[in-house]
């Protein structure tokens, strides 16, 4: 893997701005950097524009933070007028990922379209993009990589492929391989989307696939409590309480995600396969018994097979896979402990 930073055209680059509205002592770069990567499912090196956010205390250690496939580089917003980042409750000055003591680096996931014409994108490609960016920005070595869901997969690939660029791993709801039942569920979602493409209704199909995905992200206990009310008869049929929730989630997803990006990143999850024995970095694993996508047994196996020291923290939650987004207070002390020394 090589990295060749080059100027990026205005079409793919955001401005580099000082984060001054709330904290003038914290700095923010929200920009793009062109690097050269050789994709796993390609045969030649390609130039890729990696869109990133790098923010926090100047000259502080850098911590990579990556989320699920729908997460963007905007893990946090420091400007009071901007929309909150996807992990705003955990990242910020004085928060568990403390921007007074570290800088956070996050990227928008790359897709086959960013490479041009490759067959697929892998978690290794995401890891290589981050490693190239770390090199291009002059960071050299990151204090930690916090990965949740697909981000945990990319973190494991990063640790296996770029061990000297990493201090430690913090993995939430993600393992070294996808569980076959979760792959089956995602395969059905992709099938729905492809059928929608064939029928000329791609957005409707994407919304429906997202609705199905929501039933795998959340736990049975939460659904039982939230949607126990009786159905209502309207518009010529019975509507169940859970339907309104799912339809809203589908509409929201279509507003910010496109079909090809979904297909590529969903498939990338199921192509993921990292050998834990290759990873020596100290690791903190966080799992949720109600998570039906990443069973606790898979994290137990990952802990046993990792070459370096690893602890497994089990957090009871009704929120299933999405507990890494919902259990703010219970995760906070675990994140602070994992990042001690930052």
UniProtKB/TrEMBL annotation:
<keyword id="KW-0808">Transferase</keyword>
<dbReference type="GO" id="GO:0009092">
    <property type="term" value="P:homoserine metabolic process"/>
</dbReference>
<dbReference type="Pfam" id="PF00561">
    <property type="entry name" value="Abhydrolase_1"/>
</dbReference>
<protein>
    <submittedName>
        <fullName>Alpha/beta hydrolase</fullName>
    </submittedName>
</protein>
<dbReference type="InterPro" id="IPR029058">
    <property type="entry name" value="AB_hydrolase_fold"/>
</dbReference>
<dbReference type="GO" id="GO:0016787">
    <property type="term" value="F:hydrolase activity"/>
</dbReference>
<feature type="compositionally biased region" description="Low complexity">
    <location>
        <begin position="1"/>
        <end position="21"/>
    </location>
</feature>
<dbReference type="GO" id="GO:0004414">
    <property type="term" value="F:homoserine O-acetyltransferase activity"/>
</dbReference>
<dbReference type="GO" id="GO:0009086">
    <property type="term" value="P:methionine biosynthetic process"/>
</dbReference>
<feature type="active site" description="Nucleophile">
    <location>
        <position position="149"/>
    </location>
</feature>
<feature type="region of interest" description="Disordered">
    <location>
        <begin position="1"/>
        <end position="29"/>
    </location>
</feature>
<dbReference type="InterPro" id="IPR000073">
    <property type="entry name" value="AB_hydrolase_1"/>
</dbReference>
<feature type="active site">
    <location>
        <position position="321"/>
    </location>
</feature>
<feature type="domain" description="AB hydrolase-1">
    <location>
        <begin position="119"/>
        <end position="327"/>
    </location>
</feature>
<feature type="active site">
    <location>
        <position position="291"/>
    </location>
</feature>
<dbReference type="InterPro" id="IPR008220">
    <property type="entry name" value="HAT_MetX-like"/>
</dbReference>
<keyword id="KW-0378">Hydrolase</keyword>
